[in-house]
Structure formats: structure tokens, C-alpha cells
Design goal:
The protein is of the alpha+beta class. It has 6 domains: 83 residues, 2-Layer Sandwich (Phosphorylase Kinase, domain 1); 198 residues, Transferase(Phosphotransferase) domain 1 (Transferase(Phosphotransferase), domain 1, Orthogonal Bundle), CATH 1.10.510.10; 36 residues, no CATH class; 140 residues, Rossmann fold, CATH 3.40.50.10610; 122 residues, Alpha Horseshoe (Serine Threonine Protein Phosphatase 5, Tetratricopeptide repeat), CATH 1.25.40; 92 residues, no CATH class. 47% of the residues lie in helices and 13% in strands. The protein is built from 31 helices and 19 strands. The strands form 5 sheets. The chain has a 6-stranded antiparallel beta sheet, with helices on one face. Strands 14, 15, 16, 17, 18 and 19 form a 6-stranded mixed beta sheet that branches. A 3-stranded antiparallel beta sheet has the order 7-9-10. A hairpin with a 5-residue loop joins strand 12 and strand 13. Helix 24 packs parallel to helix 26. It is elongated and about 110 Å long. The relative contact order is 0.05.
Length: 752
């Protein structure tokens, strides 16, 4: 029977039809008993006898009535009149989100606010065991005038599934099958474009499918484009399963990096890497909103054509390096007088310093536990692109202190808002790790935990990974979601023996304290570790580095026994084969290629290392130094500046890159000032840089004492100095000859 305006259906008087679609017809009506206006949603007349459609309406009514949330359209009742079933719902006045978007990006603040409300509504549904499975702009209503406060209302639970704990299965009223049934050949319905990968594949579903769909909706809100597009259903499914959407900032330059990261994490194709709940996503959006209340959310400018240009020698690699090093980061700018300025960037993430973990056992033999944990936490945190992690060198001063530092003082001294500290206590076959995270700006502890475990490398590594995850969750969200790209790929395989792990710690020690004694100690230990555990990738990588240093600095050379660089290449290559996702294995293969003069491969491996560890000051410093030594100042110097930003107290050798750039450009006064701050221990380059600068400035008398030191520290005859600089120290021939020119002007005549 036809329904018309003015009809009385039970105690509801129909006023006007306000909507119609394939799944229902909606009328505005008056509830004559309660004297209020409501919406009645009818099963379409042509589908009144269709059991599937009727069941969908019943399911929608049951799902919505189980929920009481300000961002979910309320269901008041369900009824039937002359064979026509209907749902009685809250009457909403406004427009669908689809109309709200209207083909143009929404204001960022408005989009964030509505996304928070939708996420909160999903969280409430998931808490009741209800998965919506059809989140899209057409199913979200926006109440309120655009000039006033707006409220999102979630509609249409017709595809909802009860029981989050029992995942839905293909064939079990599957959402994918329902959505496909709504399409015609060659056409793409809205539902298809908003499916999660697991939904598109007909896999088991849980609440994370709704999180993905919300990410797609948020993407459309801020770009006015669908994240996954195509001319056919098959093309859309291919995009959902295999392709990453265009970065939102490329479609809307007002999108801040933090919001883009929220979208990226929601759109992770692997549910394990996605937000694990709508609550988590809402929390990051709320922190973003809170951050914008004091100052507007700052957008990241789009990459310029210049920033995308490839290196002339290896096309494509530079794009990766620039994106990693320069994306959204304000680099230090050096003025003509050599001072640093301009380090503030409102898109930069929080800065954290990991203080050396205290050996609470008092046994010097257990010192390596704390050192190793400190190093691994720094590396673990540096994987997150939005975290700025202070390098270990900057925190070394806290190693010898017997009392806990004042958190406010430590934060100010290190330039870090967050301080992570802790202790390690080993007794017998038990280990206790205590850790505490504090906010130095207020001198308050944010989080702390104590771990009591059986002593094994597997447990020790699990503790490190758990601490890393908890710290990130505790602090990074207020700057947006962290881009955890394939985080599981980065999980290290622990060695079988703690002795092997201790040898790697010795490698770290040599890295920071370059002496013959530290080198020999690390080499002897690592050789045993690699012989004992030939498939321990980190052990192989560190031994490769130690062999490369044997060549580089002529440390503890065993001339005639083997070729150190050949051994280094074999070890590093095997380490990468065993663990291709490790920044350590790729980083030390970078070292080896540069020392062997294979600069092209060195650059490629360096790019891979930075990709894996974009916020690691050590790798940025190392690659930056190599590039400047080859004369590539345009790429090398920004890397060094970024390393200084991450580490306010960088190792003195980092200054070599700045020195070479200043010297090569004829800024000899600046170069001299930089050289005076470079300390390389017994390395002859300390005095060489000073002598060359003095020579170019015509101050040979001041160079004289440094000339004597140079003669005493260089390990080869002066006639071989040019070859030493080019072959052993990877300095380009042109820069080497320029340095030798400065030495000659200072009075050092070198016969060729």
C-alpha cells in the first residue's frame, strides 16, 4: 500500500518524505503521543518481501538501539503497519558528510573535529561488540549550521555485525558480499571505495576494518578525493589492496604532517600495523586538536621541484634521501660568521634523551647490560620519524654520576623535553629493569615500570621492545601518529649467547672512543662471537666495521695475514643477507663501500640506512661526512645539520664536514674556527686541518707547532700523504690537493 503525507500510521503522522535510496525510504513524522518529530525509515515497497532487506533493517534497529552515544543517531522503536516494517529514529536536521565535503577539501580544524566525533562513536559501538562495516560519508550526517558548532551522527547500521570477539567470516552475512551485491558490472558503489583490504578479500573482520574506513573518510574530508579510485570495482579493489594513496599534502597544502600521519596509520593495509582501536585514533586526533588550540595547526609545504631532483650520479637515490632528511624538518642555518640559527620548526616532533641506564648491581662485569639497553632504546626510538632522539654522545656525561640528575636541569642541558632513565640489576639468572619517563618541562614523571625476567637474550630484547613501544605511546601522540612503517620487520633476532651481545656493546664503545686499545678489544671479542654464532647478523656487521676501521686508521693491522677490506666486505654482505631490514647491517656495508672507493654503492646503502633510521644522528653524521669529503656539500651539509639538531652535543669529528665545506668555498677564517673545535685523538687530520687553514690565511708562524704535531702523528711518510687522504679517508682528489696547497703555504714541502 502506498504511503502519503498526512497519513496516520499507528501513533505517527507522516509529514513529508525526506530521503529515499536502495535500502530504505525515510519520512519526517510526528509522534502524536510524545509530541515530537521523528524519522521513520521504511523497507522499500519493492523489497518488502525480500528477507535479506528485512533482516538488514532488523539488524540496523537492534544495533543502533543498543547504543546510546551523542554521535550515533538514536533508534526509538521498530514497528509494522499493514505489512510495511519501519524503524523510528531521531530526526536530524543538516546534511550528509558527502554533501558537506561537496567536492572541495574541508577546513582542517573542522575535519579533525568531525573525525574525533566519528571515532568516538565507533569506539562506543566496538565496546558493545558491534562492527559497523559500512563507514562512508553518505552514512554520516552533519547536524548544525556551518557557521556554528557541528555534530557528526553515524547512520545506517544495516551491515553491522554483533560480536567483535567473534570475527565475521566470508559467507557469514559477509559485508563484502553485501556490498558487491549493490554494484552493477563496471560500476563502483560508494561502499566499495571505503572497504578495508581484509573486507575486500572476504577475510575475517574485526573492529579494525572500521578504523581503516574512517581513515578513508578522513582522507576524503581533507582532500575532497577518494583515497582509492578506479573506473571499475576491480580497479578500486586493486588500489585498496596494492597501492598507497596520493599523500594528502600533495592535494591540500594546508594538511599538517601530524594529520597526514594519522591518516597514513589508519590506512595501513596490514591490520597489525594500523591503529588497534578507534580509541587510539581518537586520542591522536584530540592531541592534534589540543596542539592547534594554542596555535594553528602548521602545514608542511609541498616538496619543491629542486628537492626532488636526483643526484647526477645515481638517479633516484637522492629522492629517497631528501624525503627522509628534509621532509618537514627545519635544518640549522649557518650564518656567515659560523653561528647556528633557525632550529625551531613547529612540525617537529617531541625530543627525548635516553640517559645511560645505571648498573644497579655494582658489579663492573655487568656494565654491558645497561650500555646495551641504552643503545638499543636510542636506536628503537629513532625509528619513529616524528621523534627527535638525542644521540648517546650527548648523554655520556651522565654515565658516571652517582645520583639521579635533576630532570629539569637535564632537559635544559640536553635540549630534550622528555627524559628516559632507568637501571639494570642482575642477580643469578634473574634480571630487573626499572625505567621511568619524565617530562622535564614540568619535572614530573609520566610513566614508569619495573620488569622482572628470567635472564636470556630473548627476554632482554623483549623488554627493550616493550619499553620502546610504551614510551612512544606515552609521548608521541600529541604530535600526531607515528609512521610505523613495517615496524615488525625491524624486530631484531637476538643472539643465542649474552657473550655475543656483550661483544656488540664493545663495538659501540669503540665507535664513540676511537683508540687502538678499544679497537683491539672489540675485534678480539667479535671474532669469537662470529665464530660461535655465524648467523648473528649484528655481530657480523660490527666485525665488518672493525675490520674496515683496521684499514681506515691502520689500527692493529695484521699485514700479510689477510686483506682487511676484503674481510669487511664479506662480513657486511653476509650480515645484510641475514638481516636485510637492519639499519646496522646496511650502515656498516655503507662504511665498507666507501672505504673501498665504491662510492655509488656507498650512497645507495647509505640511502637505505637512512630510510630505515631517519632520525638516527650517527648515520646522518657518517653519511654526511662521506658526502662532504667527496665534495657533495649540497647533500652532505644538511645531513650534518640535522644530526646536530638531533644531538646538541655531537662528536667532535662531525665538524670535519663543516670544515671541508668552509675551506673549499674559501671561507678560511670560518674553517680555522671549526678546525679548532675538532678533536680526533691521535688522528693526524686534527693538525692537518689547522695547518691548511693557517696556510691559506698566510699565518705560517701560527701553523708551526701544528706542523710538528702533524709530522709526529701521521702514520705514513709525508710523500704518501696524498694517497692516504684519498684512499684511506675517502677525500676527493680535488679537495685533497686544495688541502695540500694550504700545507705548502704553511711551509710544509712534500716531495712527490
Amino acid at each position: 500500500m502506498a504511503i502519503e503525507a498526512g497519513q496516520q500510521l499507528l501513533h505517527y503522522r507522516l509529514i513529508e518524505k525526506i530521503g529515499e535510496g536502495g535500502m530504505g525510504v525515510v519520512w519526517k513524522a510526528e509522534d502524536t503521543r510524545l509530541h515530537r518529530n521523528v524519522a521513520l525509515k521504511f523497507v522499500p515497497e519493492q523489497s518488502a518481501q525480500d528477507g535479506e532487506v528485512v533482516d538488514r533493517h532488523l539488524r540496523e534497529a537492534r544495533a543502533a538501539s543498543a547504543l546510546n552515544h551523542p554521535n550515533i543517531c538514536s533508534t526509538h522503536d521498530i514497528g509494522e503497519w499493514e505489512g510495511r516494517r519501519f524503524i523510528v529514529m531521531e530526526l536530524l536536521e543538516g546534511r550528509s558528510l558527502e554533501r558537506q565535503i561537496g567536492g572541495k577539501p574541508m577546513e582542517v580544524e573542522a575535519a579533525v573535529e568531525l573525525a574525533i566525533q566519528i571515532a568516538d562513536a565507533l569506539a562506543a559501538a566496538h565496546a558493545k561488540g558491534i562492527i559497523h562495516r559500512d563507514i562512508k560519508p553518505a552514512n554520516i550526517f552533519v547536524v548544525g549550521d556551518e557557521s556554528a558548532v557541528q555534530r557528526a551522527k553515524m547512520l545506517d547500521f544495516g551491515l553491522a555485525k554483533f560480536g567483535v570477539g567473534r570475527a565475521s567470516k566470508p559467507g557469514d552475512d559477509d559485508a563484502t558480499q553485501t556490498a558487491l551485491a549493490m554494484t552493477t558490472p563496471g560500476a563502483v558503489m560508494g561502499t566499495v571505495s571505503y572497504m578495508s583490504p581484509e573486507q575486500a578479500l572476504g577475510k575475517e573482520l574485526d573492529h579494525r576494518t572500521d578504523v581503516f574506513s574512517l581513515g578513508v573518510v578522513l582522507y576524503e574530508m581533507i582532500t575532497a578525493r577518494r583515497a582509492f579510485e578506479g573506473n571499475t570495482s576491480a580497479a578500486v579493489f586493486d588500489a585498496i589492496l596494492n597501492r598507497a594513496p596520493t599523500a594528502p599534502v600533495e592535494l591540500n597544502t594546508k594538511v599538517p604532517a601530524a594529520l597526514q600521519n594519522v591518516v597514513n596509520r589508519a590506512l595501513e593495509k596490514d591490520p597489525a600495523l594500523r591503529y588497534q582501536s578507534a580509541v587510539d585514533m581518537a586520542a591522536d586526533l584530540k592531541r592534534l586538536r589540543r596542539g592547534s588550540s594554542a596555535e594553528r595547526i602548521v602545514a608542511v609545504p609541498p616538496a619543491t621541484a629542486e628537492s626532488r631532483s636526483p643526484w647526477p650520479r645515481i638517479a633516484g637515490t637522492l629522492v629517497l634521501l631528501i624525503a627522509v632528511v628534509a621532509g618537514g624538518i627545519a635544518l640549522l642555518q649557518r650564518s656567515e660568521d659560523g653561528h647556528e640559527s633557525g632550529v625551531v620548526d613547529s612540525t617537529r616532533g617531541p625530543t627525548i634523551a635516553v640517559l645511560p641506564f645505571v648498573n644497579a648491581s655494582g658489579d663492573p662485569g655487568q656494565e654491558f647490560f645497561g650500555k646495551g639497553l641504552t643503545e638499543d632504546l636510542i636506536n628503537g626510538l629513532a625509528r619513529y620519524r616524528e621523534l627527535s632522539v638525542i644521540a648517546k654522545v650527548a648523554t655520556q656525561d651522565y654515565q658516571s654520576r652517582n645520583v639521579d640528575p635533576d630532570i629539569r636541569d637535564a632537559g635544559e642541558a640536553l635540549g630534550a623535553r622528555y627524559i628516559l632513565r632507568g637501571s639494570v640489576f642482575k642477580q643469578g639468572d634473574k634480571i630487573r629493569v626499572t625505567v621511568q619517563l619524565s617530562d622535564s618541562s614540568v619535572g614530573r614523571s609520566l610513566w614508569g615500570e619495573t620488569y622482572d625476567r628470567e635472564l636470556s637474550t630473548a627476554d632482554l630484547f623483549a623488554i627493550q621492545d616493550d619499553i620502546t613501544d610504551k614510551v612512544v605511546n606515552a609521548i608521541a601522540g600529541m604530535y600526531g601518529a607515528l609512521a610505523r612503517v613495517h615496524l615488525e620487520d625491524y624486530r631484531r633476532t637476538p643472539p643465542e649467547s649474552l657473550d655475543s651481545y656483550a661483544c656488540v656493546v664493545l663495538g659501540y664503545e669503540y665507535l664513540y672512543v676511537h683508540t687502538d686499545e678499544a679497537h683491539l678489544r672489540a675485534r678480539e671479542c667479535l671474532e669469537v662471537a662470529v665464530e660461535t654464532e655465524p648467523e648473528y647478523a649484528e655481530g657480523l656487521a660490527w666485525l665488518a666495521y672493525i675490520y674496515a676501521e683496521e684499514y681506515h686508521h691502520r689500527r692493529n693491522e695484521r699485514v700479510g695475514e689477510y686483506d682487511a677490506l676484503d674481510r669487511a666486505l664479506d662480513m657486511a654482505s653476509e650480515a645484510v643477507r641475514l638481516d636485510n631490514a637492519s639499519h646496522v647491517t646496511h650502515g656498516f656495508l655503507t662504511f665498507v663501500h666507501f672505504f673501498r672507493g665504491d662510492y655509488e654503492r656507498g650512497r645507495i646503502e647509505g640511502a637505505r640506512t637512512i630510510e630505515l633510521m631517519p632520525a638516527n644522528a650517527m648515520w646522518l653524521s657518517v653519511l654526511g661526512i662521506y658526502l662532504t669529503q667527496l665534495g657533495d656539500f649540497e647533500q652532505g651539509v644538511p645531513m650534518l645539520q640535522r644530526a646536530v639538531e638531533l644531538d646538541p652535543n655531537p662528536p667532535a669529528w662531525l665538524g670535519m664536514g663543516f670544515y671541508l665545506e668552509q675551506y673549499e668555498r674559501g671561507r678560511y677564517d670560518e674553517a680555522l674556527g671549526t678546525a679548532k673545535r675538532i678533536t680526533l685523538g691521535d688522528d693526524f687530520r686534527t693538525s692537518l686541518f689547522l695547518v691548511a687553514a693557517y696556510g691559506q690565511l698566510g699565518r705560517a708562524d701560527e701553523a708551526a707547532p701544528w706542523l710538528e704535531e702533524l709530522r709526529g702523528t701521521v702514520r705514513v711518510p709525508l710523500t704518501e700523504l696524498r694517497t692516504e687522504l684519498i684512499d684511506r679517508h675517502t677525500i676527493s682528489p680535488a679537495i685533497t690537493d686544495h688541502l695540500l696547497e694550504g700545507l705548502a703555504k704553511a711551509g710544509l714541502e712534500i716531495e712527490s
